[in-house]
Amino acid sequence: MGSDHYCLRWNNHQSNLLGVFSQLLQDESLVDVTLACSEGTSIRAHKLAQHQQLTIAEER
User: Fold this and answer.
1) Of 27, 21, 13, 28, which Cα lies nearest the Cα of 48?
2) pLDDT cut 70: percent of the chain above it
3) pTM for the model
């Protein structure tokens, strides 16, 4: 039995992914976290975005 190999490419991956997350947030689709701000306001977000921000902060 032979094994087939494939190479998949996704042009403009970063801009496409950011567009998808932006649309999901705008529609509040799959929004699973509410961040409470000191001014009494709240921000709806995705856990993935929160995790990414924490990862960036830890690297600094």
Assistant:
1) 21
2) 77
3) 0.41
Distance (Å, rounded) from C-alpha 7 to C-alpha 15?
A: 21
Within 1-60, where are the H helices? 13-27, 47-59
Sign of CA dihedral 20, 21, 22, 23: positive
- CA pseudo-torsion sign 13, 14, 18, 21: positive
Distances from the Cα of 41 to the Cαs of 37, 47, 56, in angstroms?
A: 5, 18, 24
Domain boundaries of the chain, sorted by first residue: 31-60
Degrees (nearest 5) of the Cα angle 56, 16, 58?
5
60 has pLDDT over 80: no
